[in-house]
Design brief:
The complex is a heterotrimer of chains A (104), B (556) and C (224). By secondary structure, chain A is mainly alpha-helical. In chain A, 69% of the residues lie in helices and 0% in strands. Chain A contains 4 helices and no strands. Chain A is flat and about 55 Å long. Chain C is 79% helix and 0% strand.
């Protein structure tokens, strides 16, 4: 039934999801690579999109941490919804506030 | 005592022997019912303080010029009135008292998900309240910025802004923890068989409210903290002399404080959705529409904050966007009002005190809501900004909305909470007096505001004198009504007749446990097989029971 | 004590095809791991929104004073910022691995990895200390005459820099305290390979602190 979408039963009855050390190390290496990339790119002037590039890299790093380190990917759907709500709210607040400043 | 006989012996939660005695049995208790009652005592106290300040302000406005206080005192009083009423009464209001007491019972649970955290929230609440009161007596003197703490004045004034901000910050923590607790409770503690759409509507409204508490409060928390940091260390953040933008502060403040009015009103709407089916003895009309409209209000209500700033110098584009959303949020609110009246239609209405309160609420809230549209329209708002019209509007929605329903809820659940019945006729008289005084006081404000009386002034021009006198008399009438109401309830608490398990014929789970409820609410966790207001199923069950009785007699 | 109804009774009462209701019984009866995780995540969301508010302020001020922000950003020490990023990322790795270690029953490894995490956290703060004191010595701190002589955008940049990294630093300190408690819990077997939700929640908190820094780093240290 549709009204049970947010129910959160299945994952806890099954065995806990244990992530391998190797997965974590790979993610860590990726994070370091992203860090190196963002530092390297910062030296180059791309004009208006410099900030955008930096933010995209940061978002990629954050999503790695969220999904793997924080287990969002393996966890119950309810947590994805929670994080989604928070991020969407924040995004909307940014858009509405900038609607004031951009059009002043 | 009849109930006891029927349901066998039980010990209600007042008599339950815990590890502690006396006051400690209360202030160390993690029982959601005791915590709810402790909130009730604290909130009522703060309400009385706030109301007293309000009456004093009206007294000052009785005559032109100085009546009983000077301008600085008046500035402090309207600030305190706002801070106490908003942060200490209406925002915690219904969730803290009735949410705590009834949410777990209505879900069929023994307690909330995190009982100790629940007690901690109460301590934060009390701590915040104490800090707020304490800040009055410190060196700087009572704060005079208005409850909005607008910069740059809040950065420059010599009064104790930082203390009050600390108090607000702590209260915010309390609010967040309560919200967190309720969301988890609703996700995890529903009785078996209670799917999302079998939850009582009060639980739905608490759920929507808790999300706003969680998502919006941190933003004002950090904003106020930044003001305090700027005051203490001189960091350049909002001060225009250091490059800051005061309008950005207003954005940050209202990003929370507008959703906060939905923190106030949504639980009230939930209570209304409980009271109406009970006293109309009818299944609520449009259950899903009401449930979903709570979430819709929470969602859309998040994006209308700019309508507090139409005259602040915000860009035109932002102004029409916020105006548009302000009009949109009226839709889910209206959905609820239509559903409530539709539920009453052809119901077998039993006009007891709680329902009378609700009807008064619908009337008053509609006025408040519709005048909100006048303020939400860009052109008319320019004329009415910062006048008594705004004051009237928010007293109609906040006091007439949340305030009335807080007391409606108190009357509705009083028999369950204390196991006593109050005098219904006296309660109705009190409500009538309150509504009369309310209209005299606040409707007059609409006229005053429309004629140009600015808010927050301690003095006024001669042409406003008559209306000010009328409003002040109204405040006396209203206070009289409240005194009668409290006296009636207090008398019932002391000497009222015992209430049965279900004095109103309600259908939700709290009416299936004894009054007052036992320590762990349910002897056996209930299993839910039908929706919360299924009067139809109840009739069927009754018929079956009668048939069974008949056949049993026949066999004899 | 409230009695928990018999599973058969419950199943009979339920409309068919809804096995997911069973967990609700567990929530009433036992320690609810899922519940505590939900609570923790909700708390993390409030932290996210708290920093989100500050990022919004940063965004607006940067939009209004883009030139000044770049001028101010020249003075920032990219190397120390990058080093701190690497330190925090590594500490996130060790805390994540320490949970895996505990789940696999390797208590000693788990404790060691947690120790490393705390070590990295302290190292981060030490770097922060040197960075701040360097800036303060060169005369850049709130209300300093040197700073007040600069443009308003630069004043805002450094105001935000001190406040945002300061509040983040406060979270690092809280994280150290929380992780230290976890060390003691694991050592005294109050957190074990079967009952590790406290450690899991502490880990979540630490990762959040890391995520915040991931955004702080490019916004303050990479303006050239």
């Amino acid at each position: 039934m549709a009204d049970n979408k947010l129910h959160t039963g299945s994952s806890e009855t099954s065995a806990p999801h244990i992530v391998n050390y190797s997965t974590y190390v790979l993610v860590w290496l990726a994070l370091l690579a992203f860090t190196a990339a963002t530092v390297a790119v910062a030296g180059i002037n791309f004009g208006g999109i410099t900030l955008l590039i930096a933010l995209i890299i940061a978002a990629a790093k954050a999503s790695l941490v969220l999904n793997i380190f924080m287990h969002i990917r393996f966890d119950d759907v309810v947590f994805k919804v929670f994080v989604g709500i928070a991020i969407m709210t924040l995004l909307a607040v940014f858009i509405f506030t900038f609607a004031d400043y951009i059009f002043r | 005592m009849a109930d006891h006989a029927i349901h066998g012996n039980y010990v209600d939660f007042y008599d339950e022997q815990g590890p502690h005695k006396g006051v400690l049995a209360w202030i160390l208790s993690t029982d959601h019912k005791r915590i709810g009652l402790m909130y009730l005592i604290a909130l009522t106290t703060f309400f009385c303080i706030g109301a007293t300040i309000g009456v004093l302000m009206r007294l000052e406005m009785l005559t032109q010029g100085r009546t009983i206080m000077g301008p600085q005192t008046y500035n402090s009083l309207f600030t305190l009135h706002g801070l106490i009423m908003i942060f200490l009464f209406v925002i915690p209001g219904i969730p803290a008292v009735f949410g705590n007491f009834f949410l777990p019972i209505m879900l069929g649970a023994k307690d909330v998900a995190f009982p100790r955290l629940n007690l901690l929230s109460w301590y934060f609440y009390i701590g915040g309240g104490i800090f707020a009161i304490l800040s009055l007596f410190l060196a700087g003197g009572p704060i005079d910025t208005g409850w909005t703490f607008y910069v740059p004045y809040s950065l420059r004034t010599g009064t104790d802004v930082s203390w009050m901000i600390l108090a607000a910050f702590i209260l915010g923590f309390s609010s967040i923890l309560t919200g967190l607790n309720f969301i988890t409770t609703i996700h995890r503690m529903r009785a078996p068989g209670m799917g999302w759409f079998r939850m009582p509507l009060f639980a739905w409204s608490i759920y929507a409210t808790a999300w706003i508490q969680l998502i919006a409060t941190p933003i004002v928390g950090i904003t106020l903290a930044l003001v305090a940091i700027e005051r203490l260390f001189g960091v350049g953040l909002f001060d225009p002399a250091l490059g800051g933008d005061p309008i950005l502060y207003q954005h940050m403040f209202w990003i929370y404080s507008h959703p906060a009015v939905y923190i106030m009103i949504l639980p009230a709407m939930g209570v209304v959705s409980e009271i109406i089916p009970t006293f109309a003895h009818r299944t609520i009309f449009g259950y899903k529409a009401i449930a979903v409209s709570s979430l819709a209000i929470a969602f859309v209500g998040y994006f209308v904050w700019g309508h507090h700033m139409f005259s602040s110098g915000m860009s035109d584009t932002a102004r029409w966007i916020f105006s548009l959303f302000t009009f949109l949020v009226a839709i889910p609110s209206a959905v609820k009002v239509f559903n409530w009246t539709a539920t009453l239609y052809k119901g077998s209405i039993d006009l007891k005190a709680p329902l009378l309160f609700v009807l008064a609420f619908i009337f008053v809230f509609s006025i408040g809501g519709l005048t909100g549209l006048i303020l939400g329209a860009l052109a008319t708002d320019i004329h009415l900004t910062d006048t008594y019209f705004v004051v009237a509007h928010f007293h109609f929605v906040v006091f007439g909305g949340t305030g009335f329903i807080f007391f409606a809820a108190l009357h509705y659940w009083f028999p369950k909470m204390f196991g006593k019945l109050y005098n219904d006729r006296v309660a109705k008289v009190a409500i009538s007096i309150i509504v009369l005084g309310f209209m005299m006081l606040y409707f007059t404000f609409f006229i005053l505001g429309y004629e140009g009386m600015p808010r927050r002034y301690y003095d006024y021009l001669p042409q406003y004198h008559g209306l000010h006198v009328f409003a002040t008399v109204g405040s006396w009438v209203m206070i009289t009504g409240f005194i009668v109401m409290f006296a009636n309830l207090f008398y019932a608490f002391k000497k009222g007749p015992r209430a049965g398990m279900n004095p109103w014929g309600g259908m939700t789970l709290e009416w299936t446990v004894p009054s007052p409820p036992p320590q762990e609410n349910f002897e056996e966790i209930p299993v839910i097989t039908h929706g919360p207001y299924d009067y139809h199923a109840q009739e069927e069950a009754k018929e079956k029971q009668e048939e069974f009785n008949h056949s049993a007699e026949d066999e004899k | 004590m409230s009695k928990i109804p018999d599973a058969a009774v419950v199943n009979a009462a339920l409309p068919s095809g809804r096995p997911d209701e069973e967990h609700l019984l567990e929530a009433h009866g036992h320690k609810d791991k899922m519940g505590s995780k939900i609570g923790m995540w909700l708390f993390l969301l409030t932290e996210l929104l708290l920093f989100g508010g500050m990022f919004l302020i940063y965004g607006i001020y940067r939009y209004m004073n883009n030139e000044d922000f770049h001028t101010a950003g020249q003075g920032m020490n990219t190397i120390i910022g990058a080093l701190n990023t690497v330190i925090l990322l590594t500490s996130s790795l060790t805390v994540a691995m320490s949970i895996t270690a505990l789940q696999k029953g390797n208590k000693k490894l788990s404790l060691t990895l947690l120790g490393f995490t705390i070590f990295f956290a302290v190292w981060f703060l030490v770097n922060k200390y040197f960075e701040w004191s360097h800036e303060i010595r060169s005369g850049i701190y709130p209300k300093s005459p040197e700073l007040l002589n600069r443009s308003q955008g630069e004043i805002l940049f450094f105001g935000l820099y001190y406040v945002m990294t300061g509040i983040h630093g406060l979270h690092v300190i809280i994280g150290i305290v929380v992780l230290s408690f976890m060390v003691s819990f694991i050592a005294r077997d109050r957190v074990t390979s079967t009952d590790y939700s406290k450690l899991e929640n502490a880990g979540l908190y630490w990762h959040l602190v890391d995520i915040i820094w991931i955004f702080l780093f490019p916004l303050f240290y990479l303006l050239r």
